Amino acid sequence: MCRSFVGDRPYGADMAIARFPSIVIDCSDPGALARFYGALLDWKIDLSEDWVDVRPADGGQCISFQRVQDYTPPQWPSQQVPQQMHIDVIVEDLDVAEATVLDLGATKHEHQPGTTFRVFLDPEGHPFCLCLS
What we know:
By secondary structure, this protein is α+β, with helices and mostly antiparallel strands. β1 and β2 form a beta hairpin.
């Protein structure tokens, strides 16, 4: 068995090797998608030409959006163009949250596989879910 070490400690023993993971989402228009998620989460937007970050006021977690040439949105639930990830957000009331995300530019997906969450597509076609818990 091969073991990795950091100093004299086994790799992963009582220590993280990284902090503050961030999610990076490919898209054709980083600014527009960042405005959608910034409004959804009430997070601030830090905009540059081909890359945008959104994060809470406390500066914690971050979602980033990067411009990709010839971006093709996922076609969920089909696997012809599979999703690579999706975001779940917790809401107090599904009906109120649904109306809000639709106003922000989301689309409710026709396939709704559960009762405690609802599946939507963001303005670039990435699936995301509004969840009660």
